[in-house]
C-alpha cells in the first residue's frame, strides 16, 4: 500500500483519501518499464489526470469491483525519464502523479519511480561520445573540456554558465584518441582566474596542483567522479567565492589610487575562468607525477581515483610530488599535454541582489577556449 506523500503539497481531504488507498507495482525491463497503478472506484472517472512524467496511462481497466488499473508501458526514451550515471550504476528516474488541478498548480499525489541497472561495460552517455572536436588538437588527438549540467545528473552539457554559490560544477575533460593506443586523461593542474588568459603576474586560485592533487577536496567537498572511460574524467567542483585579487591590491595601494579602484572592481566580479593542464598519458604509467588524487575526509587520507590500492602514490600531496619515473621519461614522447580554459563561469550568490543583473551566456554555445601546449 502506498502512503507516501511529498511534504509541502497541499491536498484536499477527498483526494488524499482517494489516492492514498492505491497499489503501485513497478516492473523494470531492459529498456522500458511496466507500471500497474490500482486506483479506487472514486478515481476511475479522473484517470486521465494520472501521469508518468508527461505520459498518460497506456491502458485503463475497470475491474468488477469498480476499481481501476491504470497501466503505463513505456520505454525510457519517453515520458521525460531522467537518466543518471552514479558510479557503476545506471539509473532511470521519473514520477507518477495525480494532477486534478491545472498544470500551474502542484500535483495532489507524487510517487517516485526508479529503475537501477549495472552500468554496461564500455557504456558511454550519448552526449559524451566523441564525434566532433570542440578544441584544438595535434595529430590524432583532440582534447575536450565542458561544463555538464549539475547535481550528478550528467545528462548533457550545461545550458547556462550561471552557477549558484555552493552548488557543484561537473567539469568534464576528455581526449579523443581515435586510432591511438589507449590513453589515460589526467588533470595535472587547474587554477581559477578572473581572465581568459594567464599572464605573468596573474592572480590565480589553485584547484588542482602538485601534479594531480585535488586541493579543493581538502578545503571543501569537491571530488573526482568515478570514470566511465579512461580517456575522460569529471571534476565535481563545488563553487565558492574564489579569493582572487587581494595580493594585487596590497602591491599597488600605495602607488596609484586609480589602479586600486580598477583592481577592486575586478576583485568583486563573480566571473571566473578555470584554466587546466590536461595530460594524455600511458594508463600503465601512473606514478607520483602522473595521477588523479582526491582527499577522503572519512578516512582522513588521499585516494587514487583509478586504483585505491595504489593510493600511496598520493601521499606526496601533503608535501611535494617528485618528478616522473625513468619509465615515464621514456614514454614522454607519446604523451601530450593541453592547456584548456573553461569560462566565463558566473558564481552567483542568491543573497546578492546585484547578481540578478549579470548577463547569462550559453555554455553549450562554446565558452571553452583552448590552446595546445606540448
What can you see in these coordinates?
The protein has 374 residues and is mainly beta. The chain has 5 helices and 22 strands. It has helices spanning 13-20, 216-219, 246-252, 257-267, 326-331; strands spanning 23-28, 32-39, 50-52, 59-62, 68-75, 82-86, 89-98, 109-118, 137-138, 141-147, 162-164, 168-176, 184-193, 205-209, 213-214, 223-224, 232-238, 271-281, 293-296, 301-304, 336-348, 368-372. The strands form 4 sheets. Strands 11, 13, 14, 15, 18, 19, 20, 21 and 22 form a 9-stranded mixed β-sheet that branches. The protein has a 5-stranded antiparallel β-sheet with strand order 9-10-12-17-16, with no helix packed on it. Strands 1-2-5-4 form a 4-stranded antiparallel β-sheet, with no helix packed on it. Strand 6 (82-86) and strand 7 form a beta hairpin. The radius of gyration is 26 Å and the shape is elongated. The relative contact order is 0.12. The model is unreliable at 1-18, 130-138, 245-268, 327-334 and 359-374 (pLDDT under 50).
Amino acid at each position: 500500500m502506498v502512503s507516501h506523500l511529498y511534504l509541502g503539497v497541499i491536498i484536499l481531504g477527498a483526494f488524499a483519501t482517494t489516492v492514498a488507498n492505491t497499489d503501485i507495482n513497478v516492473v523494470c525491463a531492459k529498456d522500458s518499464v511496466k507500471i500497474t497503478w490500482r486506483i479506487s472506484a472514486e478515481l476511475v472517472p479522473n484517470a486521465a489526470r494520472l501521469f508518468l512524467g508527461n505520459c498518460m496511462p497506456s491502458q485503463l481497466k475497470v475491474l468488477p469491483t469498480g476499481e481501476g488499473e491504470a497501466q503505463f508501458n513505456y520505454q525510457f526514451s519517453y515520458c521525460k525519464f531522467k537518466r543518471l550515471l552514479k558510479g557503476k550504476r545506471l539509473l532511470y528516474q521519473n514520477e507518477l502523479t495525480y494532477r486534478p488541478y491545472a498544470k500551474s498548480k502542484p500535483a495532489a499525489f507524487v510517487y517516485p519511480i526508479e529503475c537501477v541497472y549495472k552500468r554496461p561495460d564500455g557504456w558511454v552517455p550519448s552526449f559524451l561520445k566523441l564525434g566532433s572536436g570542440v578544441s584544438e588538437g595535434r595529430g590524432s588527438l583532440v582534447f575536450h573540456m565542458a561544463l555538464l549540467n549539475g547535481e550528478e545528473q550528467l545528462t548533457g552539457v550545461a545550458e547556462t554558465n550561471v552557477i549558484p554559490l555552493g552548488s557543484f560544477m561537473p567539469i568534464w575533460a576528455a581526449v579523443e584518441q581515435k586510432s591511438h593506443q589507449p590513453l589515460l586523461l589526467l588533470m595535472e593542474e587547474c587554477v581559477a582566474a578572473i581572465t581568459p588568459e594567464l599572464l605573468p603576474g596573474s592572480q590565480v586560485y589553485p584547484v588542482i596542483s602538485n601534479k594531480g592533487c585535488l586541493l579543493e577536496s581538502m578545503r571543501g567537498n569537491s571530488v573526482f567522479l568515478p570514470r566511465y572511460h579512461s580517456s575522460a574524467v569529471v571534476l565535481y567542483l563545488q563553487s565558492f567565492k574564489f579569493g582572487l585579487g587581494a595580493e594585487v591590491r596590497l602591491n599597488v595601494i600605495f602607488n596609484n589610487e586609480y589602479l586600486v579602484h580598477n583592481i577592486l572592481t575586478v576583485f568583486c566580479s563573480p566571473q571566473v575562468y578555470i584554466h587546466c593542464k590536461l595530460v594524455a598519458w600511458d594508463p600503465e604509467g601512473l606514478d607520483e607525477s602522473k595521477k588523479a588524487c582526491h582527499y577522503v575526509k572519512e578516512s582522513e587520507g588521499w585516494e587514487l581515483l583509478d586504483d585505491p590500492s595504489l593510493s600511496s602514490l598520493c601521499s606526496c600531496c601533503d608535501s611535494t610530488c617528485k618528478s616522473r619515473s625513468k619509465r615515464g621519461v621514456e614514454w614522454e614522447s607519446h604523451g601530450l599535454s593541453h592547456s584548456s580554459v573553461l569560462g566565463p563561469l558566473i558564481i552567483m550568490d542568491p543573497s546578492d541582489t546585484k547578481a540578478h543583473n549579470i548577463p547569462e551566456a550559453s555554455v553549450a554555445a562554446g565558452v571553452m577556449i583552448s590552446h595546445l601546449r606540448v
